[in-house]
Structures are given as structure tokens and as C-alpha cells.
Specification:
This protein is an alpha/beta fold. It has a five-stranded parallel beta sheet with strand order 1-4-5-6-7. A two-stranded antiparallel sheet has the order 2-3. Strand 5, helix 5 and strand 6 form a beta-alpha-beta unit. The longest helix has 18 residues. The N terminus is likely disordered.
Length: 203
């Protein structure tokens, strides 16, 4: 497999200039390019080889996660299409943990939106790293977890990460469409109330 350093070297633009990364890798050979915005008036599309295997796409994602530690301008990371194309074969427990670690402790990163929709998180083990990340992260405003198979226990773990001393007080939107029937209205209402409290604290 390619090394993480060679995967990083295939990226043409400086990681410090990225504003948005949208993985749309195609298992059918369609474009796997992420998109980068340097500023509102100047959009730069990455010129990297189209990944043709799961392993190459995985290493490319790892190179982006490496860049989270030094990036100053990335605002959005959308992995929904990557999840759709490859299910959990790429965004596995290890990569999810690496991403959450960077979002927790990278001192220069100011990511405001993360989309993991479609990733099968279930109710406990995969939710814990996200919850721990929320306790440390102060930049995220929107977390999209549509159709992730989250049930009441998993939703309660996320809720606890928003509450009380040490809880996240900066997240404004936790999107859970497609999980409502599993979670139940009571917990959804509690999450909404907590997010409204977060919004009120910033106004």
C-alpha cells in the first residue's frame, strides 16, 4: 500500500489553504476528488489521481486527517458520499478515532461543519469517540449524523456530551434525520433544548 507521506504529497494545494473538503469517491471509477476553497472568490479543485481501490481511498482520507493537525482554514469536512460508496470499509473505527482525536486536540483547526451521514454508528462503541470529541471541541457548529442507526442509548451519550460541566456549549445543530424512530421523541426534545441553550449562550 502507498505510504501516508506519498498520499499527502499527491495533494497539489497547501493544506493550510483548504476551506472545504468534500469526499465524493466513486467505487465505480467516478471522480474521487475532494474540493478545496481557498476563499469565496477563488475555488481550487484538487489535482490528484482518482483512487481506484478502497485501499487508495483510505490512504487519501488518512492524508486529509493528517492535515487536520496543521490546517488553519478548513471549515467543512463532508464524508457522506465516501460512506455511501464504501460503507464502513474506509471510515472504520480506527479512522473515526483518528479524526475525533484531531478534532479534539488540533490547536489551529477551526472546522465548523462535519458530515458523517450514513455511517453506521449504532448505539455505543462508535458514539463514544464522537461524544468525547464534542467535550473538547469548541469550533464545530453543525454535526450531521443522518441515517447512522443511532438509538436512544447513543443519542443519550451525545446528549451527555452537551450537558453540564465540561460539556460542549458551542455546537448549534446536531442533525439526526433518519434516526428519529430509533431514538424516540423524548431524547430528541432534550437534545433540541440543549442546543437552544448553546445558541442562547452565544447571543
Amino acid at each position: 500500500p502507498p505510504s501516508r507521506s506519498s498520499a499527502r504529497s499527491s495533494r497539489s494545494s497547501s493544506p493550510k489553504a483548504m476551506r472545504r473538503v468534500n469526499f465524493a469517491g466513486g467505487a465505480d471509477g467516478s471522480s474521487g476528488d475532494g474540493e478545496e476553497e481557498e476563499d469565496d472568490d477563488d475555488q481550487i479543485e484538487e489535482e490528484r489521481a482518482v483512487p481506484v481501490t478502497i485501499e487508495e481511498e483510505r490512504w487519501e482520507l488518512l492524508s486529509v486527517l493528517d492535515e487536520l493537525w496543521v490546517n488553519r482554514t478548513m471549515r467543512s469536512l463532508n464524508l457522506q458520499q465516501l460512506v455511501s460508496n464504501y460503507s464502513g470499509e474506509i471510515l472504520d473505527e480506527f479512522i473515526l478515532g483518528e479524526m475525533c482525536r484531531a478534532l479534539s486536540y488540533a490547536t489551529t483547526l477551526q472546522l465548523t461543519e462535519l458530515n458523517l451521514s450514513g455511517l453506521e454508528l449504532g448505539d455505543r462503541e462508535s458514539i463514544e469517540p464522537l461524544a468525547e470529541m464534542l467535550r473538547h471541541n469548541t469550533s464545530l457548529r453543525t454535526l450531521q449524523l443522518n441515517g447512522c442507526g443511532i438509538g436512544p442509548d447513543g443519542a443519550r451519550i451525545l446528549l451527555d456530551a452537551l450537558r453540564g460541566e465540561g460539556g460542549n456549549c458551542t455546537l448549534r445543530s446536531l442533525v439526526l434525520k433518519g434516526n428519529e424512530d430509533l431514538i424516540g421523541q423524548r431524547v430528541l426534545t432534550e437534545i433540541s433544548e440543549q442546543l437552544r441553550d448553546n445558541i442562547a449562550k452565544e447571543t
